[in-house]
Amino acid sequence: MPGQETRSIVASYDIQHYLKFSGGSSYIKVTEINSFDVEREANAYEPEYIDKKTQPTYNLGRTDTIDFEVDAFGPGGAQQEFAKHEDDQNVAVDYVRTCAYDFENGEPASPDALVAKHATAILNMNPLAQEAGSPVRMTGTIVIDSDYDKGTFAESTGTYTPTPAE
Q1: I want to staple 26 with a disulfide (CB 3.0 to 4.6 A). Which of 14, 57, 124, 158 is the partner?
Q2: How far apart are CA 101 and CA 111, in angstroms?
Q3: How far apart are CA 154 and CA 108, in angstroms?
Q4: Residue 1 has pLDDT above 60, yes or no
Q5: What is the mean pLDDT of the chain?
């Protein structure tokens, strides 16, 4: 049909997650994963009025929580950092989520200018787990503790560049 555009799937591997640990010079890709479950919970205020049948709910903010599981690979990479912090609590990290498709402009993004969201976060690791005949599993939780800012991410250098304020 005339006027129809060709469309394609934006696949799960088009979204990647990166962390920068304290003292690190660049972001480490953390999506050699088995699962990466992102959940957003609204922080709501629900007053109760005696003169209303339908009670209002006001959203005051949100909490983004990411639960993940990754197989242990060595040497280096995110797994080395996860193992270092297995017994630490509330490890401060910088978090970046990238997307290889620019929804705002309706086109794929360049590998060195991926669409990115950045925030500070807290990482908590669980003890290493194992099952007979399987790789060691590392599980943890990342809790976003700031508002997101937006920018671009260069895969080749592992650097995030915020979009300048207008």
Answers
A1: 158
A2: 10
A3: 14
A4: no
A5: 87
Degrees to nearest 5, angle at CA 133 with 130 and 138: 30
Contact 39, 64 (CB under 8 A): yes
> Cα–Cα distance between 61 and 122 in angstroms, integer?
18
CB 91 within 8 A of CB 9: no
pLDDT at 42: 80
What DSSP string describes 44-77? EE----TT-SSPP-EEEEEEEEEEEEEE---SSH
* Angle CA 123–99–39, to nearest 5: 45
Q: pLDDT category, 22, cuts 50, 70, 90?
A: confident
Q: What is the pLDDT of residue 89?
A: 95
Furthest C-alpha separation in the chain:
64
120 or 41, greater pLDDT: 120
Residue 101, token pair as written in the block: 């498709």
Tokens of 86: 């297995």
Read off the tokens for 61. 């903010």
Instruction: Dump strand ranges (E) for 11-166.
Output: 15-21, 28-29, 35-45, 58-71, 91-99, 101-102, 107-108, 114-125, 137-144, 149-154, 159-162
Q: Which amino acid belongs to residue 30?
A: V
